[in-house]
Amino acid sequence: MNNATTYSVDAYHQRISLNRQSLQADLELQADKHGLRYALLHTDSGVVWGKVDADRARKLHLVWSIEPSWTALQQGRLFGQNAELLFWPSNGTVQASLVTDVKPQAGDLFSTECYDEDYLMWGDSLASAKAIHESFTRLHEGGQGLEYDLPLMLATEAQVQALRLHVRHYLVTDMMNGFTQVGFSRLVDFHTSNE
Fold first, then answer.
1. Average pLDDT, stretch 94-122?
2. pLDDT at 143
3. In the predicted model, what is the mean pLDDT of residues 92-117?
4. Theoretical Cys-Cys bridge with 39: which of 12, 50, 91, 175, CB 3.0 to 4.6 Å?
């Protein structure tokens, strides 16, 4: 584990219901409200990455590596430096859980210890084919033959080799037995350094 030093944080948790019929618009609204930059969907057919972009009128919208099938959604995440919105289908609706390190208008405060960790991303080279959207980079994983479009602009093989996904783990302590464990984790950002 790298960067395993724990530190205290005041975090906030809030449950949110999203409208399945207008899910894309609801997600764009939440991204704007909480400064969320990236999206990750797990669907029946695989993983879909997304990115929050602003158009000329500064309206935020989600751009996807491939158009997602909302009916095949298993779960998704919108994330950024200060928050993550985890969402999933449930009995015809879409439920969501917002965790943020910045005080929202509503939500439950909990003070906790946390630590940050970086994970290597799949991909050992830039793929020869262009990504589906100009703000994405197509990566290739030689050992698995996997290709996917990541919502970042990477120009060199060195950047691909150094690509990391930054994750924050929040610790919880069981008051009955005193054990501390990771209670939940959220995605934070990407970076391309070996630190």
1. 81
2. 75
3. 79
4. 50
3 located within any domain:
no
**How far apart are the C-alpha atoms of 7 and 113, rounded to whole Å?**
5
pLDDT of 43 > 50? The answer is yes
Count how many domains the chain has. 2
19 and 100 share one domain: yes
**C-alpha span between 73 and 75 (Å, rounded):** 6
Q: Tokens 């207008």 identify what position? A: 22
Neighbours of 33 (CB within 10 A): 14
Cβ-in-10-Å burial (0-12, 13-18, 19+) of 151 comes to buried
Burial 7-26, CB ≥16 within 10 A → b, else e: eeeebbebebebeeeebeeb
Provide the domain limits for residue 91.
Answer: 11-109
Compare 141 and 186 and report the one with higher pLDDT: 186
DSSP-derived secondary structure letter, 131: P
Judge if 129 and 176 occupy the same domain: yes
* Helices of type H across the chain: 23-34, 157-161
Whether residue 102 sits in one domain with residue 27: yes
Cα of 8 vs its chain's centroid, Å: 22
> Do residues 126 and 105 share a domain?
no
Write the pLDDT tens digit of every residue in 113-143. Answer: 889 999 988 877 787 667 667 778 888 887 7
Same domain, 55 and 27: yes
Residue where a domain terminates, one of 93, 109, 125? 109
